[in-house]
Structure formats: C-alpha cells, structure tokens
Amino acid sequence: MNSALITGIAASLAVPNIDTDTIIPIDYCINRNRPNFDIALFRSWRFHDDGSERPDFLLNTDPYRDTKILITSANFGCGSSREMAVWALVDFGIKCVIAPSFGEIFYNNCFQNGLLAARVSDETAVTLGRTAEQTLGLTLEIDVSEKMIRTNRSEKYQFELDSLRSEMLLQGLGPVAATLTRVDDIETFEKSDRLRRPWLTPQQI
Amino acid sequence: MPAPAAPRLLFDKIWNSHCVTGLGGGYDLIYIDRHMLHELASDVAFAMLHERGQSVRRPELTFATHDHVVSTAAGRQDDTWPESAGYIATLRDNTARHNIELFDLHSPQQGIVHVVAPELGVALPGTTLVCGDSHTCTVGALGALSWGIGTSDVAHVLATQTLVQLRPQVMRIECTGRLADGVTAKDLVLALIGKLGADAGTGYAIEYCGEAVSALSIEARLTLCNLSIEMGARIGQVAPDDSTYEYLSGRRYTPIGEAWDQALVHWQSLPSDLGATAAREISFEVSHLKPQITWGTSPAHVIDIDGVVPDPSDAIDAQTRTGMEKALAYMDLAPGTRLADVEIDAVFIGSCTNSRISDLRIAANVVKGRHVAAGVRALVVPGSSQVRKQAEAEGLDKIFSAAGFEWRQAGCSMCVALNDDRLRSGQRCMSTSNRNFEGRQGKGSRTHLASPASAAASAICGYITDHRSIAV
What we know:
Helix content of chain A is about 35%, strand content about 15%. By secondary structure, chain A is α/β, with parallel strands linked by helices.
C-alpha cells in the first residue's frame, strides 16, 4: 500500500457471518500457482452456473464494478484459513473492508497482503452501510495514519487499528524479514528451552 | 520467603513459556513447537520460502501429510483424483528437499492433519502447534496451544519457527452437569455455538473445563475443541489430566523413559491455578441438552433435533434477520418446519470433527443389521489410515458395507469437497463435519451438521432422525 490514504467507491454488503467459502469457493483455490483470483470473488453470489453474471448482485452493477471499499457486517471472513479469500478481494481491487468484526485468521491474512481490515462499532457499520445504500457511488476517504473514515459530506468515523498492523500497511513491512532480524533471540530461546524441555524434540518410538 | 506467584491460567502458562521476545502493543514473538503441513496450504508457502532464499529452521519439528485434495476411493493412487497428483508430487519434493517427515499417500500414518497429530503423539500438552488449516484448534484437547494460520504465516513458521502474535484474552467455559445418554460432545459444542454466537470467541482463546468436560474421552474432547473456530476462537483447550496421559502413552512420537517422566512433571504443572480468572467466564449446564442439528448456513443456526426451524421475524436485529432469511432461502426451508421430517439425499460420516474410531463405533452401533434408505448416498470416511485399519480389525467396515455405506480411504473428503466426494446442487446432506456454509459440500449443497449417531440414524431412515427414536 505505502500510502496513508485509500479513496474509492464504497459498496454495502450487509450480511453477517460472510465466510471465506463464500468469498472464494474451494474449487477456485485449487490452483497451485498464484493466479489472478478476481473472477472467483463471491463466485456463487456473483455468477450463474454457466458463468454469466447475476445482474442483481451489487458488484455487477455500475459504478460498483470499481468498488474499492466494502462495508459489511459482523464476523466477515469467518471459517476457513484460506488466504485465497484475501487474494480474491485484492485482485478484484478491494483496498479496504469495513466491518464490526472479522474472522481472526482472515483478519491476520489481510495485513500480510496490504488489505486494510477496518474494525468499526456496530453503529458505524450500520450507518456507513445505510449511507452507501442511499448514495449511488458513495466515495469514502480512509486515512490509515489517522484511523479515520471520511465521507464527501465531511462526516468522520473512527476505526480500530493497532500500531504494528498500521506499520505493516504503511511501510510494507515484511513480517518474515522483521523476525529474521531477531534470530539471536530465537537461538537464545532454543538453547534455554533445550534444558527446560529436553523431551520436546520428537523421537520416533 | 518469596511472594507466592500469582495464579495463572493454562493458556498463560503455555503462552508465557513460548514468548521469545515481546514486540510491544500486545504482540509477542511466539516459538512454535510443532508445525503440521498438508498438500493444499503448503505449496505456495514453500514457493515463498524458496523465492526469498530461506530454509526450514527446524525440519524435525515439522510433519506433513496429504489430506485435503487426495481421493478417498478404494485403491487410490496419486492421480485417482487428477488435481491431486501435482499437489502430492510437490509436497513430496518439498519435504524431501527440506528433510521433513512426510506421511505419504500409502503410509500407515497418513490421514487428516488434526486426526494424525494427536494419534501419533506429535501434539503434546503444553506445546504450541500450528497448521495452515483453521481446525488446528482441535488438538487443544490435549492441552496444547494450537491454532490455524494462513499461507504467509506457514512460510513464516518454516523460515523462523516463530509467529508474530497478538496475545488473545481467555474465555473459560465451565460445562456443568452430565450429558444425557446419546448426547455427545458434538451436540454440546453445537449448542454452545447456538447460545453464544458464531463470533463470540473472536479475540479469545477458549478453555473448556468443568465436570462435563472432564468426563469426556480424549477423542470427544478433540470434537469439542474442533468447533472452537466456529465460535470465532482460533484456540480451544482442555487442561491435560490422567485421561490425556493415558491416551498419549506409547504413541509414535510421545516421549519415553526418562523423557516421559520429565514431560509428565511439566504437563502436570499446566492446569489453571486455583484463583486464576479469565477475562470472560461462562457457565453452561449440559444435563438438559438434546441432540443438536443445524438448519441454516452458519453453525450458530442450530436447534434441538426435535425442534422447528426458527422464524426470521423473531430475530433480534435487522442484520440477523437478513442472515436468517438468506439461509432459509438457500436451505429451501420454511420457518416452523419440523426438521425431523425433512428428507435427505446424502449422509457423510467423517472430517476432523467426527472421524475417529469412537465416532465410527457409535455410528456402526446404530446401523448394525439395518440398511441405508433407498435413494440415500452414505459415506464413511475414516480420519486416518490408522483409524481405518483399527475399524477393519473390529469389523466395522463390514457393518457399514452391509448396511449400504461406502467405506472409503482417509482424507477430508466431503467436508471440504475438493475432490469428487461432493454433493450435487440442491442435495441435502446430514454431515458430521463442522461447516454448513453455502456450497461447502459442493456448489449448491445443503448441509445439516449433527453427531455421528444422528447422521447414522438419518441414513437408515432417509430423513432427519433423532437417533434415540430408533434405539438399538
């Protein structure tokens, strides 16, 4: 991301407990390379069996084909740990998902891939969702540094984001590289742990 | 005299002893004792590792098997399900290259990761264990601290043997009373999810305790912990006790001799101290529980098996109502319908939730001398090749086959529907698995989650059945 600001069209999908199977069905996860997962996103809600679009699904209508921000309900991304759910959202062009709560594994996967999962109060999610439904092509501006969502009518809503995840987004911080700078700490832990728990290393009977 | 240490919870003891270093803001770098790999979530992770020029830090703490994509057909080969051949070959290459133990397709140890980890003694009390699968919470039943992770984190563990983790709070659920005959751990945990909600556990590690939990076998505790993620909690645990030690003794990777004695001393120090309190304490009385069944597309959409489908107009808020209406339309059910009269097309007995030997014994006991109803496809998929072998030694395979069930090879099968074990659109299935999401068992599939006994009874009757009504 490397930018403190996300601006774009916001779409409301006010359904609770949208699971990662719905975000991307397992059939589309069977791909051993990392293809573009755009067409897999919300596959069965977005497309008929023959591949044609369902005209009544919001993301199939203009201007929501260009949705950058998704406003949704509690427990978004619950269920399976499949990181392809995040990849599908990112590949579609989603930069931010706003919800009162997220499936935790999904939440963690978002930040590994530069996708902002913005946690807001129940009231804010409902208000923002309603505003999006009533305003065709509502554009939001999301300030990651300030943890603030702004409408073009200058309404402001706070979201939750801790500093580690904020840094991951702003600096494109790679967690593996960061951890590998602590390899001395890991070695020290392993040495003392070998004395503390000599039984730990598996030995086949 | 030193001041007595503050009382601590099971979770705190394990977390604290695995903290390599604090990272600030509630984050810790946590050491990982055991890493399970399967074919689906590992190949992109290995590709990330190789791209960065990194190696596997502790291959001897890492174990791999094939479960998600592999065919479960009798006499299966790598390419019996064509898509699986590439996955199997890649995992074979990667594990050989990095010197990781692989329970390969024809290994007697092959099986579903969360069934294999306990039965081989890979998962142990007080250890941290992760896997690229959300149901890794299962093995918390042994008093391990275990959770599911995404692909990027699998690569992180391979390279560093650690994870950057935000410390969760603890929710302790005390289950009081005793389960009635015919009511199982599956019914208990489904009822809990129904009562607390599908996101009640978000941000928490759950500890299950109380007399009803102590009374459960280890296999039943594995079922209980398995569904923690369906309550939103990545982690579910039961403190180790004598049942745990008895279960673990003599397993393939369990410590032996002096190492066992040392480990046992450590394990016995793990249960929550008297006076330690959790951020959220819940008491749940189980004596009145009936067998449970889901009616909708969230595990929280659950009722007593003799109950009726609820009415969305009674929902507590507009969004819950929207979710219920969407679920009813998908499931093709109307409010007020008695589920126990609804006809089914298929029955699936398997998955990391309910595919262990005790589950198969319960199901076999219901179907013995009976036959699957006409028009119903019924599958039994053992959780591991060891479970399959044990079941065959006990003659359970013959009971199932005589009753018209398909007796299959070990794997995730119709829980994840990655191979040809899947339903056709519109088909309705009684399933012992863990997720009733839209399309979970195949595009357009309709899933009712229940216990092995309920699933077995329903296979015989051809409609959703309270197994107690056809008592053996």
